[in-house]
């Protein structure tokens, strides 16, 4: 039985009537928007990934897939998704992970964070990250996992700053960075030097596709314009499949780590054999 299409707009987590962590809208027939509103700087947590971003992506994909006609050979409607930081501020897209909480969970990276990133990297319609402020570490990975990036031209940085607080990156995130940052010099500056790229630097080095003057609403408007240029690529239903072909090592590495047993699981199996 087909699931009923979601009703837009709606807040997440489910049942939130005030102070939602995300608002999901469908402003035009071909555009969906996920506005992330997790605190002052959009820290990425298990709660945000599992109870907010994942169901938001589910709803968008379900709504778009429902546009396909029943006849043989029918196509889907054009479609694109924009992800943006809270529209009532102009400072942060995302300030990255709640790192101390992340490293306390042995499953956070392989079974929570990586699956969301690879979900975005194989999403069936074009995705545009609208960077309306600083985009650090895990936030930058979230943005790079989208297909395109539109960034404010104002005071904001993109940075993988893990080197500065002694946080090694995972093999899967390294593959994402290698897939999306093709210049060895830029990759080195990004990972090993933790360079802070201004919007102008990010554009010159291929980290973003456009920079935009103005406030968050202007960044969203430009992202919507960008979406209209690429939304037709979704109609044949192979957009996500093509991306898996382009970035195979990302998906291979994510799958390998997701299936690897954690120390607790290994211990449980050992004790069960006693």
UniProtKB/TrEMBL annotation:
Q: List, in alphabetical order, the GO biological process terms annotated in this UniProt record.
A: fatty acid beta-oxidation
Q: Which domain of life is it from?
A: Eukaryota
An annotated Gene Ontology molecular function = delta(3)-delta(2)-enoyl-CoA isomerase activity
Under PROSITE patterns, the record lists: ENOYL_COA_HYDRATASE (PS00166)
- Tell me the leader sequence span: none
* GO annotation, cellular component aspect: peroxisome
- Database matches in InterPro entries: ClpP/crotonase-like_dom_sf, Enoyl-CoA_hyd/isom_CS, Enoyl-CoA_hydra/iso
What protein family does this chain belong to?
Answer: Belongs to the enoyl-CoA hydratase/isomerase family.
Q: What is this protein called?
A: Enoyl-CoA hydratase
Please report the organism this UniProt entry assigns to the protein.
Answer: Botryobasidium botryosum (strain FD-172 SS1)
